[in-house]
TrEMBL record:
UniProt-recorded name of the protein: DedA family protein
Limits of the VTT domain: 30-159
Regions crossing the membrane: 12-30, 50-72, 140-160, 172-190
Subcellular location: Cell membrane
Membrane-topology annotation of the record: Multi-pass membrane protein
Keyword Amino-acid biosynthesis set for record: no
Alphabetically ordered keywords of this record: Cell membrane, Membrane, Transmembrane, Transmembrane helix
Domain of life according to the entry: Bacteria
Organism: Massilia suwonensis
UniProt entry tagged with the keyword tRNA-binding: no
InterPro entries: DedA_domain (IPR051311), VTT_dom (IPR032816)
């Protein structure tokens, strides 16, 4: 993985950094925890400029967040709740969970986007409530850009400062990333297996049938 990413970034340059970070946000084939440190490592070797790497990575991260934002905005909260009502077990959320999440996001929307962009996995998912709550595009871009800049800056600096030692560190990055993805999958399966319909949902259904 180390050789593949570094060779790809050497050949594709800033456009490659942009493209990988955009794809990582739409569907993460390679997590940003690997992309940006590798880009920083390539910059430390003198093949790329660190400022250009940071700009390309941040721009790609924000661009990759937009499809989820627009998809959620187009789909809408009402349709998502109907979908959750039919497939709550597989989505692992109920319509009530969505209402709670939306209320929380409306109270903390700006900070949720800003700090959510700093958390793996949440970085992509935070675009969904932003779109569902019709957060203005300007606000979404502003706070998403600030959060993305902080995240890509931290990762780029790590790769840049480690420089020649980074190849040794890279031996541990791939297994750790796979462990994180495996843990996320295990958590999802656990949620599916242990999911139970909320009691208040059953009560409302019985009241409706009785009426």
């Amino acid at each position: 993985m180390f050789e593949f990413i570094t060779n790809f970034l050497e050949k594709s340059g800033y456009l490659g950094v942009f493209a990988l970070m955009a794809l990582e946000n739409v569907f993460p084939p390679i997590p940003s925890e690997m992309i940006m440190p590798f880009a920083g490592f390539v910059a430390a070797r003198g093949d790329l400029n660190v400022v250009g790497v940071l700009a390309a990575g941040t721009a790609g991260s924000v661009a990759g967040a937009l499809p989820w934002y627009y998809a959620a905005r187009y789909y809408g909260c009402a349709r998502l709740k109907r979908l959750a009502g039919k497939h709550a077990r597989w989505l692992t959320v109920s319509p009530e969970d969505i209402d709670t999440a939306m209320d929380t996001f409306r109270k903390h929307g700006k900070s949720a986007v800003l700090f959510g962009r700093l958390i793996p996995a949440v970085r992509t998912l935070i675009s969904v409530p932003a779109g569902l709550c019709n957060m203005s595009l300007g606000q979404f871009l502003l706070y998403s850009s600030i959060g993305s800049l902080a995240w890509t800056g931290l990762l780029t600096a790590a790769g840049f400062l480690l420089e020649d030692k980074y190849q040794e560190v890279s031996k541990y990055v791939d297994p750790v990333s796979k462990t994180i993805l495996g843990a996320m999958l295990a958590w999802y399966l656990y949620r599916v297996i242990t999911w139970r319909k909320p009691e208040n949902a059953d009560s409302r259904k019985k009241e409706h049938e009785a009426g």
